[in-house]
Amino acid sequence: MLEAARPLRARTFRSASGAPPQRGAFQVSPAAPICRPPRPASAGSPFPAGRRHAASFRRHRRFAGAALAAALLLLGCRGMPSPYPPIHLNPNMDYQERYDPQEASAFFYNGMAMRQPVAGTVARGQLDIDHRLTFGRDDEGYLLEASPIPVTGDLLARGQKGYTIYCQPCHDERGTGQGILFERADTPTASLHDELRAGYSDGRLYDIITNGSGLMAGYRYPLGVEDRWAIVAYVRELQEERRTMQAEREARQ
Ligand code: HEC
Predict the structure, then answer these.
(1) Is residue 212 within 6 Å of ligand 1 at its C-beta?
(2) 8 and 30 in contact (C-beta within 8 Å)?
(3) How many Å lie between the centroid of ligand 1 and the Cα of residue 144?
(4) Which CATH superfamily is domain 143-252 in?
(5) Domain-wise residue ranges, the chain
(6) pTM for the complete prediction?
């Protein structure tokens, strides 16, 4: 009784002779599982060595026989059609409660199991937008020559604001491509005034702002459609200013 009531941790094993253990011998540490101390050499199996082997062999033979019988049983079931559904040992994910399309539901306030799509949702392939405005392309897919938005003072002001925030850091205030990228990293940044860029159509400029070009990233996410067209208008104005300036300089010479 006393032995059983003692906490496990305090339990020690007595040696075969029943003498109290030596200090440290077979002490069970708190973390270690309690296990049987090794048998002293004198105390062995009740069977002599030869008979012990025979018993182990019989045990194994019984186990092998059971395994063979189980395998035969399982193999025997192969190819036997059954009208019943198979036995499902873990059906938790296969059979779940669900609503069928158009089913009624007492859970939702309007009694419908199907939910309305979020306002403004557009099904794939059903986006009805103005391609000229959004992509800067005509119905055949060619880039527009002229902006679809009439240029007004407001639009130019808006374009200047957008240009200052999104373009000026690299293309500089005048659009000559001498911005911070060129200054500090020696990165060739296009001038918006060279012959090539000055000759771009409005649609082309819009496409470059939208999708980027070469090293330059696109600005379709930070800038809305109208903001991009406004920047196109402002770039056009910068180009026009520079042309007038050059013409005046040439006239003076
Ligand atoms: C982070 C720096 C950076 C910003 C900001 C930037 N650009 Fe550029 N841009 C470049 C570089 C660099 C190139 C040259 C790209 C190349 O040649 O690979 C370039 C090229 C261009 C070109 C000529 C592209 C071509 O294919 O000929 C245009 C036009 C242009 N940028 C307009 C703009 C406008 C408008 C904005 C503002 C919305 C803008 N960029 C903002 C760095 C910038």
Answers:
(1) no
(2) no
(3) 19
(4) Cytochrome c-like domain (1.10.760.10)
(5) 143-252
(6) 0.62
